[in-house]
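tmp note - Deoxynucleoside kinase
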Amino acid sequence: MHIAIAGNIGAGKTTLTKLLAKHYKWEAQLEDVVDNPYLDDFYNQMERWSFNLQVYFLNSRFRQVQQIRQSGKDIIQDRTIYEDAHIFAPNLHAMGLMTNRDYENYRSLFDLMESLIKGPDVLIYLRSSIPNLVSQIHKRGRDYENSISIDYLSRLNERYEAWIHGYNKGKLLIIDVDNLDFVDNPEDLGNVINTIDAEINGLF
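out:
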């Protein structure tokens, strides 16, 4: 089974991925931020590195999806290939940080990859307000995220909502995370797990 967690920067995807992997004994596939050779450069000079970064993520996630399907294991994935193509790349393009030529090249590559993969069995979308995202980003204190503006997060949030509204790749679970604390409040995590149990049991 393939479960994926989607959501804006700071929504709590990685934290929830790890907690659910531990609870269900699923294998966690985390986003490649540590070994990503473009991330620091991108945040310092978005226009120059946006295409390189997006192609890197696309390649990395396409590989992940293939491995998930081939492994036959129950896997939970932190962020999906669709978010890059429906949210991050078009947002960079709309902000003038990716040229038309690069964006069309990127979209063509994504369309080809999408034709070869299947969506997750269940997508969990973590919906969050901007103040909550900002608070979480500051709390984790990653240097390269210090320059992220509220305007940038707002644009991403709008695109997330539009994408989720039309999402049709499989089962969708929306969790509002503004008033949830998975880490320090076991009851909150328990409620999320109960919701997921109901969704997963409905698959069989």
